[in-house]
């Protein structure tokens, strides 16, 4: 329920207040991802129990979880695409990894009580491994320098000394086919 409240608050800021900050978008993605993790684990458990002979596919909870799994995946991808369009992938991917992993761990711990019978050392080692993973992502993402994409074509409107013609594609039977027109040649062709 706490996840749903936080998601609604973030969605309010995203839609009504037009706050499109990377943390807001990726927090919504992470919250949806935690719902996806819960739903996937529930569906997988119910299918496993059904295969063992305890039919679970007749219960409406199974179909509710399938619908929840599909819709949360769709909206998760929608918000993630929005974040990638607004920000560079070198910023989105590491933050998304950390938020997704954290939300999946917390939702599994709370909803499925995964650490209930675990030893203290096992919990510490698991959390320490997650921390090391996050630290590695931070180090890798921090050292990336912005790469400038080169434009693979020449914009004819920006060539100094050349006049832009009104033709999109030159006549292939012309003697000037495949060459740039000089100002003198374009004046001759207009007369």
From TrEMBL:
Pfam family, any one: Mg_trans_NIPA
UniProt keyword Ligase present: no
Keyword flag Nucleus: no
Region (Disordered): 169-191
GO molecular function, one term: magnesium ion transmembrane transporter activity
Membrane topology designation: Multi-pass membrane protein
Location in the cell: Membrane
Listed InterPro entries: Mg_trans_NIPA
Listed transmembrane segments: 22-49, 61-80, 92-112, 118-141
Composition-biased stretches (Polar residues): 169-181
GO CC terms of this entry: membrane
Top-level taxon of the source organism: Eukaryota
Keywords, ordered alphabetically: Membrane, Transmembrane, Transmembrane helix
PANTHER family listed in its UniProt record: NIPA-LIKE PROTEIN 2 (PTHR12570:SF16), PTHR12570
Family indicated by similarity: Belongs to the NIPA family.
The protein's name: NPAL2 protein
